[in-house]
Design a protein that fits this description.
By secondary structure, the chain is α/β, with parallel strands linked by helices. The protein folds into three domains: 75 residues; 187 residues, 3-Layer(aba) Sandwich (D-Maltodextrin-Binding Protein, domain 2); 199 residues, Periplasmic binding protein-like II (D-Maltodextrin-Binding Protein, domain 2). It contains 21 helices and twelve strands.
């Protein structure tokens, strides 16, 4: 700053207050800053035809002005608010570490977390957006992403992606199956982590009936479940079951059925959003699922009153021999230390197709944010290979990028490496992300419960649900 004032004093003594204009630059719209600098330099040097030395002085002055201006901007800084629902101590520690890393690499940007418990998150985010005080960056998940995108609240990222990744095809190819999503043909979010379902199984129980690994096909899976469903003490009551299922009104068990649905080649909706869940593939997959309980009787009774957290407790207690769950269950089992050896296997296939429902979380930029560039740099960093690799190693978050999934270090992580392998395979299923997603799930849960209770067949229940859904979207 001293050097700048000295240059101005020597070259422009008639304008002793000119240096004060420097402090106005940060108040000027950024598109015009350089023009103002050139104008001031022209005043200093005069409008006569410049000699080569004068041109050099002009360039030096511009460089000095730009440098001081950037220091001034960084000193002021920009704060971006980031809304999330990350509440676990280990997760908070990891996310705060990564946010600190981002801030150190971007000294002009400060990250301010807006934490909300998961149960209240969607309502709080909705209120902030509607009320005109949205965060700059928002964490989204499959249940609420469609709502906020449908509201027009989330910025499409395509132009930013094309600008920063000239080889867009190569960039897109690095995302694992299903992890790069488009809504109305646009990319609105970048994935933080996947969350495929895999098979957790009781190794000791398997060996006791002559089994060593989970079945490769769903047909073999049924036979294995029958072997694992036993009356141990001969009192006429089943003591051990093959698999646990959840079928409460909360709908958590639906994600297990979605894995079966995908393996059968089914889907929930057509391109025009009309029901596809009453087509033959979907009906057959649900009937297969229902038969595990009602026909084969390899599932503990009471599934209509069994939420997912209770169903996995049945596995830990040894009542069931298998459960389908995501990588987050690994840390639970390590902490709880069940009285048996356990392991993880890939999901079964049907006619060569594999299905695994995935519950990813994403970062999105709020369209009303005044800091799109800083928010974009933040989500690029937080979903990039370095951050993804760190989260995988510290939290066993399944990476969304193939370049990270192929990291040899992840292949050495017991149990987690199975999820890494599952994430690379085709068949990842994410529910449709549309504004009506909550209503869709409610309708499907009603059909699911009706079929699981035996009051209707899978076809009858899904046909009724399809009619209800099609009426809803036709309004």
């Amino acid at each position: 700053m001293i050097l700048l004032k000295e240059v101005i004093r020597r070259k422009a003594s008639p304008l002793p207050t000119l240096s004060n204009k420097l402090f106005c630059f940060t108040l000027v719209n950024k598109e015009h800053k350089v023009n103002y600098i050139f104008t001031i330099v022209n005043i200093i040097l005069g409008r006569k035809k410049m000699k080569s030395k004068t041109k050099v002085v002009r360039v030096m002055l511009v460089s000095i002005f730009l440098g001081v201006m950037m220091v001034n901007v960084q000193a002021q800084g920009v704060t971006i608010s980031v809304a999330d629902f990350i509440g676990g101590a280990a997760e908070v520690e990891v996310f705060e570490y990564l946010e600190q890393q981002f801030q150190e690499r971007n000294p002009g940007v400060k990250v301010e977390r807006r934490y909300t418990p998961f149960a209240e998150y969607t309502d709080v985010l909705t209120t902030s957006i509607v009320g005109g005080s949205p965060p700059d960056v928002a964490m989204l998940y499959d249940f609420n992403a469609g709502k906020f995108i449908g509201m027009g609240a989330i910025l499409a990222l395509d132009d930013l992606i094309k600008r920063d990744y000239p080889n867009v095809a190569q960039w897109e190819a690095d995302w694992a199956p299903g992890m790069l999503t488009r809504e109305n043909g646009k990319i609105h979010m970048l994935c933080i982590r996947g969350g495929p379902r895999c098979v957790f199984y009781n190794v000791d129980r398997f060996r006791s009936v002559g089994l060593y690994y989970p079945a490769r096909t769903w047909e073999e899976f049924v036979q294995d479940c029958k072997k694992l469903t036993r009356d141990i003490n001969g009192d006429g009551r089943i003591d051990e079951y093959g698999i646990g299922l959840a079928a409460t009104k909360q709908g958590e068990g639906m994600w297990d059925w979605f894995s079966v649905l995908t393996a059968w080649g089914g889907k929930l909706l057509n391109e025009d959003r009309t029901a596809a869940f009453n087509q033959s593939e979907a009906i057959e997959s649900m009937q297969f699922y229902v038969d595990l309980l009602l026909k084969h009787k390899v599932v503990p009774p009471g599934v209509l009153q069994t939420p997912k957290h209770k169903e996995v407790e049945e596995f830990i207690a040894g009542l069931t021999s298998m459960t389908w769950y995501g990588p987050w269950f690994i840390s639970t089992l390590k902490t709880r230390k069940p009285k048996f050896k356990w392991a993880v296997g890939l999901m079964p296939t049907h006619e060569g197709r594999m299905g695994s429902s995935v519950g990813p979380i994403w970062w999105g930029i709020c369209k009303a944010s005044k800091h799109h560039e800083e928010a974009w740099e933040f989500i690029k960093f937080m979903t990039g290979p370095e951050a993804s690799r760190y989260m995988a190693k510290k939290l066993e978050y399944t990476p969304a990028r193939l370049s990270v999934l192929n990291d040899p270090e992840l292949q050495k992580m017991e149990h987690f490496r199975v999820f890494v392998e599952q994430a690379k395979l085709p068949g990842a299923y994410i529910i449709p992300m549309i504004p009506e997603t909550p209503q869709l799930i409610d309708i499907l849960v009603e059909a699911y419960q009706t079929a699981m209770s035996g009051r209707k067949t899978a076809k009858e229940a899904l046909d009724k649900a399809a009619a209800k859904w099609n009426r809803l979207i036709a309004r």
